[in-house]
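Researcher: Quick test of sequence recovery. Tokens follow.
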């Protein structure tokens, strides 16, 4: 599929996805939401990891497209939220790791996209927030659920109820982003993490991610049971034999994803 508002380039098994509406600070209109949902459910097969960023130097994504939100009715608003949530679910459930490279404003739906990614790296210039209440609405693409799970209820409520932005240093301090880099290093550092992940057994990476993600939605006991089951599934793969044998033979493992 050709995308109007995304640029997708796969290089060395890493898909660089750039959300590209720079004249609107990459705001997520319905078309962009549909494109992101499609992309993350049909990521090119050769991609073993993805990095998501925003076009230009100013914004990752400055939120849902406010011009479109202004046209909502109670009925269409519910659909808008459902489509935004589906987009974030597609990112979160993508079989390969997705790293957000937050290169500027990540507001509203933009922060919700970053929250759905598996790891968040930010530029020193990033500003992150859920300013929906300043517009009289509430976060609708999963922010009320993912933010408190990441930074705790108190900090999430402070951000959501005030609508205030935090800068990159504060985002790092509260665990909202994993690391912060000078703007020029952000993409290369995100790629380095993707490369590091790609050294590992792809099925192990996939199931470890699934154990963490699904486990967080379960009781501790059910999560441990899931971990045990996935540990069993992974140990039946050729990659496990290769990984263990390579260690014993003191050589680098060559994983095939089987
Ligand atoms: N939806 C639609 N358009 C948006 C947008 C959004 N979420 N965010 C920015 N834009 C547009 C602006 O309308 C402007 O378009 P124009 O040049 O056609 O007027 C363009 O992007 C540049 O934005 P501008 O506001 O001029 O940049 P700024 O540097 O002065 O301010 C922000 C940057 C991010 C602080 C400001 O754009 C902003 O507050 N955006 C809305 C953030 C928000 O509330 N998001 C949550 C939505 S639920």
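Model:
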């Amino acid at each position: 599929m050709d995308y109007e508002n995304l640029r997708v380039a796969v290089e060395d098994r890493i898909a660089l996805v750039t959300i590209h509406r720079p004249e609107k600070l990459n705001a997520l209109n319905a078309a962009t939401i549909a494109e992101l949902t499609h992309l993350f459910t049909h990521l090119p097969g050769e991609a073993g990891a993805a990095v998501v960023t925003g076009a230009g130097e100013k914004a990752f994504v400055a939120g849902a497209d406010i011009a479109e939100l202004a046209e909502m009715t109670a009925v269409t608003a519910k659909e808008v939220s459902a489509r935004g949530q589906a987009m974030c679910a597609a990112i979160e459930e993508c079989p390969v790791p997705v790293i957000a490279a937050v290169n500027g404003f990540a507001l509203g739906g933009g922060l919700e996209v970053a929250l759905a990614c598996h790891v968040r790296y930010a530029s020193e210039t990033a500003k992150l927030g859920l300013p929906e209440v300043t517009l009289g609405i509430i976060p609708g693409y999963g922010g009320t659920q993912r933010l408190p799970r990441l930074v705790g209820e108190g900090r999430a409520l402070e951000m959501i109820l005030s609508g205030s932005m935090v800068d990159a240093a504060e985002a790092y301090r509260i665990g909202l982003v994993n690391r912060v880099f000078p703007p020029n290093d952000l993409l290369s550092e995100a790629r380095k993490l993707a490369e590091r992940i790609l050294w590992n057994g792809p099925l192990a990476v996939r199931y470890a991610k699934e154990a963490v993600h699904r486990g967080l939605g379960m009781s501790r006991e059910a999560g441990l049971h899931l971990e045990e089951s996935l540990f069993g599934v992974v140990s039946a793969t050729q990659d496990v034999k290769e990984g263990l044998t390579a260690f014993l033979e003191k050589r680098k493992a060559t994983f095939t994803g089987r």
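The domain at 6-198 is CATH 3.90.226.10 (2-enoyl-CoA Hydratase; Chain A, domain 1).
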